[in-house]
Design goal:
There is one protein chain. By secondary structure, the chain is an alpha+beta fold. It is built from 20 helices and 32 strands.
Length: 816
Amino acid sequence: MAEKGDSPTAAAVVGPDGVISGWSEGGRLLLGWTAQDTVGRPVTDLLVDPPPGFPESHAGGPDQTGFMPVRRRDGSTVDAVVTAHPLHGTDGRPLGHAVTVQRWGRRPVIADRAFEQCPFALGVYDPDLRFLWINASSGRVIAHSEEQVLGKKYRELFPEFDRELFPERDDKPYTDQLAEVARTGVPARLITVFQPLGSNYANAWATSIWPVRDAEGQVRAVANWGFDMSAEYWARQRLLLLNKASGGIGRTLDVIGTAQELATTSVPAFVDLVSVDLFDEVLRGEEPPSVSAFTPGETIRLSRAARHSVKEGADPAPQPANSVTHLPDSVAAHCMTAGRSTVQLAAAPDQGGEWAFGPGLAADPAHWPPGNPLIDESLAADGVTGRITVPLRARGALLGVVAFERSDRPESFTADDLILAEELTAKAAVAIDNARRYSRERTTALTLQRSLLPQRLPSQEAIEVASRYLPAGTGAEVGGDWFDVIPLSGARVALVVGDVVGHGLHASASMGRLRTAVRTLADVDLPPDELLTHLDDLVIHLSSDVQSAGHFQPAGEFGATCLYAVYDPVSRRCTLASAGHPLPLIISPDGTSTPVSVQPGPPLGIGGLPFESVEVELPEGSLVALYTDGVMENREMDVDQGAAELLRVLKEPAASLESLCDTVMDAMLPEDRTDDAALLLARTQALDPQHVADWDVEPDPAQVPRARKFVLDQLDAWGLEEEAFVTELVVSELVTNAIRYGEPPIKLRLIRHTSLICEVSDASDTAPHLRRARASDEGGRGLLLVAQLTQGWGTRQTTNGKTIWCAQTFAEPPAP
């Protein structure tokens, strides 16, 4: 049964001969022909261009439909859908056809009902964006009926659609999108976010806009459809924000920096203001206090590690933490002590006395955790529409609290927003705790390393020295760079610089072991190449000990590099050897560079390869620069370019070695360095020849009195008469031992330096040993006497024998 208003259908019964034998009332309504006009006439009289033999050619076959013009009684034609339905008798004999005629080109009323009742919002507008038609769903969205909007312009009725709801998303206003499609005729698909009238929640709509053209192809109108995809849209936005947080939070191992990353990631994508408060212990890298340590009613004191709002700019720099307090009855205090998040809303009651929430906010209370949300009218006084307070916890420890606030955006918090806030806080908590742990380890390693490095360089006259040590940036662990200045016998001095493989506490401990080993070997007064050979053997033994423990972990000393140089101010010669370390740069007083022609040996721990030493004579006032590879760390330069640049900087005029150190560090080191850098600068000095006296001793005991006479005369010339008695006795013992147990040639040398140094050299490799003589022994007390009368004594091997030395301090520094 056709519904009222539908286009009528004409029906006719046609016999086998093609003559009409029956006619319906619908035929009269559709075509104007009555039964008297059509019964007895061939059906083809009504068809403008029927197919040959229609409908007889279809007798016995299935229904046949065709599109053809049909004549109306007034002489006009109507395009119609003509269908021939075969008729049969009880014996199967064809009885003719039932022919139906339906107007083609006009949809039935039920189709209009379908568009009207469509759950999607549908609308049609003229090119000036006047309303031509909307369905019921569209009326509910815009809160207007069709009668209220027909003929009126979109911009006049809804000016709010002419503004960008979220300018940061760079979206065009929806009205501009409609106008652009009407102007260009190009369809558009978009997602529109706007706030419906009477709602405090922004909806997201998937919308399609297309032009409506006439028969000539001219755009006569523009149409649109859309459906509410708010749930899907906001869920996608939350996922995008979490994905952004994964790469944006925890990029640096810095507590305050990580807290600021949480704030900047959340604003403005999620909220309008974020504040992060942390315990002072967390900022210092220490363990945070236990929650059980807080007593009821106690005020909790934290530090504001980060705060960022939409009004403070896009990317604020981290600021020093300021102290904040949370009173016992505050929401933040309750959240921290209870370990649960809290949502506060500044909602107002509607006319019925119920609290008015946006769509999706309280429609399904089961989504909210117990106790949430709380209605807090005091928020409105601060211009805040909602606040989510989340305790900052990681690995079971409470680190602080985070507050997320909304004030400038229309949408209220939902239960899903609470989940998002907790996810963001959880990611930040782990990153902050990692930064705290790293800060603690870094501080420990740095403290250990600085305690193992020289606190101040020793006082000596052979060289003027200055040094700098800068650890890697805060994003990297402490390395194992080190340096040292070691006074040696004979007024000589050793310069050492090294670099341990790896970072952290292990590297610092390895550096300490190597520095101690070098100092121990330096006390033996070994030549540089022999010292590195012994140091290499020590590293190999340490590595073997670690492997035999069953849980192999390469020792930090393995693969470490070291440069050991010895400068003698008497001869002005510098002897050096390298174990895989960059060679020093030497600049003469005239500004020319002195090449060091020696091949660096392998790093420590390789074994089986020799170390070569080289001796360079240096003019007085030469500059020697020892450094680690961190000084030349630059991505834009290779090693050779870095060395050339360092040499250029070292040649620049400087008021002192200290200022030159600062110039080098400022010029060579990048701000974001990832490796430690150590620099040791030494300006060589020469000992006044008048402060050195030597004498060749014949291997005859009769020469001992002459040696004493030589010493007394020299001390008298130097004005050191008070030291004559001890010096005469010491020289007598040392020369006697050299004559008795050594081999010629024998030489006696006196050096007036910061102390009075007596040296006796001979060609024997046999080193004397201090021993306790028995009461009946006639000898054996010489070295014991020397050790008791002087402040230090020792033996060093030379290329052609040995040297026994002892040193006496002056009662008062002698006049030059």
